[in-house]
Amino acid sequence: MNKKWINIFGWTPSFRRANPITILTYHSINTKRDPYTISPNTFYRQIEFIRSNFPIIRLNEIKEAMTDKESSRKVVITFDDAFSDFYEVAFPVLENLTIPSSVSIPTAFIGRFNEWDYPYHKFHKRPLMNAHQLQQLNKTQLVDFGSHSVDHLRMNKLPVKEMRHQAAVSKRTLEDLLSTSVVTFAYPYGRLVDFSSLTTKVLAETGYEIGLTAHWGTRNTIKDILCLRRIYLRETDSPDTIRAKIEGGYEWIPLLKEKVISGMRALKKIIAVN
User: Fold this and answer.
1) For 99, which of 50, 136, 219, 262 is 20 to 30 Å away at the CA?
2) Strand partners, 219
3) Which helix (H) or strand (E) segment is 102 a member of?
4) What is the dihedral angle through the alpha carbons of 236, 240, 243, 249, rounded to the nearest 10 degrees?
5) Segments in the chain below pLDDT 50
6) H-type helices in the chain, by residue range?
7) Confidence (pTM)
8) Residue 133 sits in a domain of what CATH number?
9) Residue 16 falls within a domain, yes or no?
10) How far apart are the C-alpha atoms of 173 and 189, rounded to whole Å?
């Protein structure tokens, strides 16, 4: 393991020895940049670096990997939203390098556009893959598919009945379309406030075995199987930064976010009192 840890606080996280599986999140691979986009050239360099330095496993192999006594860090590659540039740009790279990946799909938007992003002007309008493209990818046996709900809604803000609808209908839609079992679910938005013990209970009752969040982290265990942490890479990340992120050197990110959130809540209370 690389001992060069990058940390703005000048200390190495004591929990870096936790289960060595890192789940990496991508969204769009495109020359039209926005906060969730990586350029094609950068994506190729990142994937090639990861492949050269870490074993890459399928998402549906993660349970077995968590109980494996093998101590080397493993990486899982995931994509949220099922943008068509996965089919056009990302998959050819992954196929050429024989790298498995997992794509999570908001089923109401198959063949449509990312309408949930329209209120946020910092994101481009992007097409999602259509049914034919998803079926073609499924035939390659290099891509696993999971649900990203039906309507790309924040699960934890929904009534329980609607949670079940989002989980069950998206699962059934994908299983009918792809003729395969769908057991993974990626929470739309995926922040701490977007999932809970109730949402994981709904996923379990609906037949999901793996749940993905957007909460930063590389410490994943079996007990968190329905709310696994993931990380992301930026366009400007150097090889040293990529390695450090994957190996757990950026675990201060969720701690910093939690401190900022706590500080904002405290400030709001002070303002309210005054």
Assistant:
1) 219
2) 20
3) strand 101-105
4) -90
5) 1-18
6) 40-53, 62-67, 84-85, 91-96, 131-140, 160-178, 197-206, 239-246, 252-273
7) 0.87
8) 3.20.20.370
9) no
10) 21
Cα Rg for the chain, rounded, in angstroms?
19
Q: Is 95 exposed, middle or buried (0-12, 13-18, 19+ CB in 10 A)?
A: middle
* Any domain includes 6: no
Q: What residue numbers bound the domain in which 59 lies?
A: 21-273
Rounded Cα distance between 185 and 203, Å, is 8
Q: Who contacts 115 (Cβ-Cβ below 8 Å, separation ≥6)?
A: 109
Structural domain contains residue 5: no
Instruction: Please give the Cα distance from 184 to 209 (Å, whole number).
Output: 6
Give the tens place of pLDDT for each residue, 17-63: 446 899 999 999 999 999 999 999 999 999 999 999 999 999 999 99
- What the block records as the tokens of 10 is 């000048």
Let me know: does 249 contact 11? Beta carbons within 8 Å: no
At 74 the three-state DSSP class reads strand
Name the residue type at position 273: V
Residue 59, helix vs strand vs coil: helix
- Measured CA to CA in angstroms, residue 120 lies from 37, 59, 178 at distances of 15, 30, 32
Q: How far apart are CA 188 and CA 156, in angstroms?
A: 10
